[in-house]
Amino acid sequence: MFLTETKRFHFLLLLIILHSEVEQAYAVWPMPQQMSQSTDRYPINPQLLAFSYARDSAAQSGCSVLDAAFERYFNLIFPDFQLTMPVFSFLLYFLQYFVNKTEIEDFPRFQFRGLLLDTSRHYLPMPAILKTLDAMAYSKFNVFHWHIVDDPSFPYQSRNYPDLSSKGAFHPMTHIYTQSDVKRVIYHARLRGIRVVPEFDSPGHTQSWGKGQPDLLTSCYKGKVPSGTFGPVNPTLSSTYQFLNGLFKEVTSVFPDSYLHLGGDEVDFTCWRSNPNVQAFMAKMGFGSDYTKLESYYMENIVNITAALNKTSIVWQDVFDYRERIPMDTVLEIWKGVPADYRAELGRITLAGYRVLLSAPWYINHISYGQDWRNAYTVQPQNFSGTEQQKKLVIGGEVCMWGEYVDATNLTPRLWPRASAAAERLWSDEEKTSSVDKAFPRLEDFRCTLIRRGIQAEPLFVGHCKHELDRLVVVH
Amino acid sequence: MFLTETKRFHFLLLLIILHSEVEQAYAVWPMPQQMSQSTDRYPINPQLLAFSYARDSAAQSGCSVLDAAFERYFNLIFPDFQLTMPVFSFLLYFLQYFVNKTEIEDFPRFQFRGLLLDTSRHYLPMPAILKTLDAMAYSKFNVFHWHIVDDPSFPYQSRNYPDLSSKGAFHPMTHIYTQSDVKRVIYHARLRGIRVVPEFDSPGHTQSWGKGQPDLLTSCYKGKVPSGTFGPVNPTLSSTYQFLNGLFKEVTSVFPDSYLHLGGDEVDFTCWRSNPNVQAFMAKMGFGSDYTKLESYYMENIVNITAALNKTSIVWQDVFDYRERIPMDTVLEIWKGVPADYRAELGRITLAGYRVLLSAPWYINHISYGQDWRNAYTVQPQNFSGTEQQKKLVIGGEVCMWGEYVDATNLTPRLWPRASAAAERLWSDEEKTSSVDKAFPRLEDFRCTLIRRGIQAEPLFVGHCKHELDRLVVVH
């Protein structure tokens, strides 16, 4: 009721104020590589505005992705245009838009600018994911890393293995992603220039897999008898690899992206150690008591399965740390440690010639009081000891929103605009964006832009956004 | 679109499942003083359910507050009743409710269980405030401490001093609370057993007041000339007290509660010291260079104004720390320090015979990663050195949500269920609620109850709520 009143009221206000008020230009975020703006202001007529393809552009008229983007951005630039035109055309006289003459030349610093959502620790309903994709595009993220399954739940509804979600999801009917849900996410992302990289993390983080796939997980022993609990995927059985081959075959056909994230992090060896069959396998393979060799054996097998499906593997850094023999095109993702640690790891991985993604300083699920976006902003992904060649192997980074304490109730304000700080680091020239204090007012402005576009981004500090009351939804 | 589909889907599911599923009893939060529950389950018919007044109850049939509460709670207990009855009456056969035979005797441990919202650092639209009142009632909070104005903005639209908001609010028309807004908040609160205590904090925290009330604030000097900036309220002018008398007269007629919060915290003396007129006043009054005496002088004056209006003052602890002569019925609110500090302050204030409110450990705007509700839960408000008589002077406490980093985008998930942890501490028996680990599953349950009632309370840990997808709103 209040919202309606407020909206109507704003409307009357438009009549009174807009003829005298010139809307301020909004800050551009992330900072373009080159931008020159003159103080000359020109009135623009929305009806005459046109987007156009450059003559030498690879894309030309008819490119469906860009044509759809032009339409979306027209509505973002002139949010009141459709609202006012048909019924209230007399308002147009007052609705005057201006633009400063501006030239922008732009390209990303890093090719891989990812954001991870975790839909296993809490289920995220489809609108929350689609909304996140919208907001990602506004910050020029271009990879949605979908950490779709993990220990707590298995919401991916597999065509070939339906028991995985019917037994492993929080709820078999409501807390799942159907094939059509996944298609919709991929479609929505594609139109926004975002690729979707799914992660099927194993051999650890797979408790939920075991419910719908008997014999997949290692049976843990207490003394000489099974304890009734289960550990990581059992790497000693050929049935394991048959199943994974089947699952990955399906997954790589559903997700068209050239990358598949295989996980490989945090494998606890306790259960493997307890199991006599695993012990026997270790002896047979000559692994001694070094269970990292068993993990390597497993990871090499699934990386090879993935390669045979013509996909490139991404894995967490643990896989490199255990010195596994993995194809040179595998991408390693760094998630551990304080700056000194991840810098050393950046050096080691790139020295070995692997491409690397940096996530460690962008675990955005970690929160602290105040302006913690500043930490995300001041990361220097290429500031480590190494040659120029090594630096080029840093292909980008990822903001990770792990789901222990996050679901659809708090996802959006916790992500935005904090993730946007990392987004500028991944997109913009480092020298031109070296001052966190100069970034602050631009990011505040950008946060208001997000609010205006319907993203419930939280405030950076005291103040208000001009359009916050039109766009905000509080259900009552 | 997704929501609609999901809802329709749930509906079909009801037909299939509900005849065999018995809904689990929800945990009671905060823990009642006495509760005995038998394992006997009885089916209940919503149409025959009746709330009734005890024979010896002071309230009897016709009490409008309780009658309205009965109606609200009927709908909370049977959320699907109205939905299913008119159109889908055939469903009733399947919708079977059960209740365990339960006897509860209950009363609050502390009489004053408050929650502070700060509507100056960010404006909170009316629906956000009303929603918070709903959620407060669910956790048995009974005081809404409305920190309505402060340095950044003055959203209270005064009848007698309209310039205060027209010049001091973030926006003179949209970012204000009109007289009818305030009435609506008070009405909404009253029906939920919540009193509304407004705070007009002075002499510090008043920058926004100065915009609409010239000469109220102290003009700061740089050397012998005014610097153009302003400090706290000018305590040396009789016009100051005339204005405050007028404002408080209005405010105490608008807000019917017997308390008025006068603030009195964090007064910076730099500006007072710089001003030659203030210096002259100090000399005339014999205050020497002790500016705490000037502050005392000011606070005593406004506490007396308040007393003359038949209201009881609440002030922040600073007022006691400066040893001001204030009426013995004044309530002191403790906001400073780590546990050792606030315990000592509890001892000092109660030893002097004043009633006290504890807020220091419940600054819930401070966030940290993980389950920080545990800190709020383990507070022991009466655990300080003092007599039994002193302990009784602790009349309660307040959860404070200061607004530096909070507005309507993130208020609800940041408040709930974290504030509910403090609510149980303020309501329930301390010994019966001494285990934070035992509280955890009950609070998780209660969080799901909040979700079911439409409050976007954030998760405590990994998992899901049964009704989360029906109630959740993500705008797309």
Automatic annotation (TrEMBL), chains A, B:
Positions of the catalytic residues: E266 (proton donor)
Catalytic class of the enzyme: hydrolase
UniProt entry tagged with the keyword Glycoprotein: yes
Catalytic activity: beta-D-GalNAc-(1->4)-alpha-L-IdoA-(1->3)-beta-D-GalNAc-4-sulfate-(1->4)-alpha-L-IdoA-(1->3)-D-GalNAc-4-sulfate + H2O = alpha-L-IdoA-(1->3)-beta-D-GalNAc-4-sulfate-(1->4)-alpha-L-IdoA-(1->3)-D-GalNAc-4-sulfate + N-acetyl-D-galactosamine; N-acetyl-beta-D-galactosaminyl-(1->4)-beta-D-3-sulfogalactosyl-(1->4)-beta-D-glucosyl-(1<->1')-ceramide + H2O = a beta-D-3-sulfogalactosyl-(1->4)-beta-D-glucosyl-(1<->1')-ceramide + N-acetyl-beta-D-galactosamine; Hydrolysis of terminal non-reducing N-acetyl-D-hexosamine residues in N-acetyl-beta-D-hexosaminides; N-acetyl-beta-D-6-sulfogalactosaminyl-(1->4)-alpha-L-iduronyl-(1->3)-N-acetyl-D-6-sulfogalactosamine + H2O = alpha-L-iduronyl-(1->3)-N-acetyl-D-6-sulfogalactosamine + N-acetyl-D-6-sulfogalactosamine
Entries under Pfam families matching the protein: Glyco_hydro_20
InterPro entries for the chain: Beta_hexosaminidase_sua/sub, GH, Glyco_hydro_20_cat, Hex-like_dom2
Function comment: Hydrolyzes the non-reducing end N-acetyl-D-hexosamine and/or sulfated N-acetyl-D-hexosamine of glycoconjugates, such as the oligosaccharide moieties from proteins and neutral glycolipids, or from certain mucopolysaccharides. The isozyme S is as active as the isozyme A on the anionic bis-sulfated glycans, the chondroitin-6-sulfate trisaccharide (C6S-3), and the dermatan sulfate pentasaccharide, and the sulfated glycosphingolipid SM2. The isozyme B does not hydrolyze each of these substrates, however hydrolyzes efficiently neutral oligosaccharide.
A Gene Ontology biological process term: carbohydrate metabolic process
Family note: Belongs to the glycosyl hydrolase 20 family.
Taxonomy of the source species: Eukaryota, Metazoa, Chordata, Craniata, Vertebrata
Enzyme nomenclature, EC number: 3.2.1.52
Keyword field: Glycoprotein, Glycosidase, Hydrolase, Signal, Zymogen
GO MF entries: beta-N-acetylhexosaminidase activity
Signal sequence annotation: 1-27
Provenance organism: Pygocentrus nattereri (Red-bellied piranha)
Designated name of the protein: Beta-hexosaminidase subunit alpha
Subunit (UniProt): There are 3 beta-hexosaminidase isozymes: isozyme A (hexosaminidase A) is a heterodimer composed of one subunit alpha and one subunit beta (chain A and B); isozyme B (hexosaminidase B) is a homodimer of two beta subunits (two chains A and B); isozyme S (hexosaminidase S) is a homodimer of two alpha subunits. The composition of the dimer (isozyme A versus isozyme S) has a significant effect on the substrate specificity of the alpha subunit active site.
Domain Glycoside hydrolase family 20 catalytic: 110-429
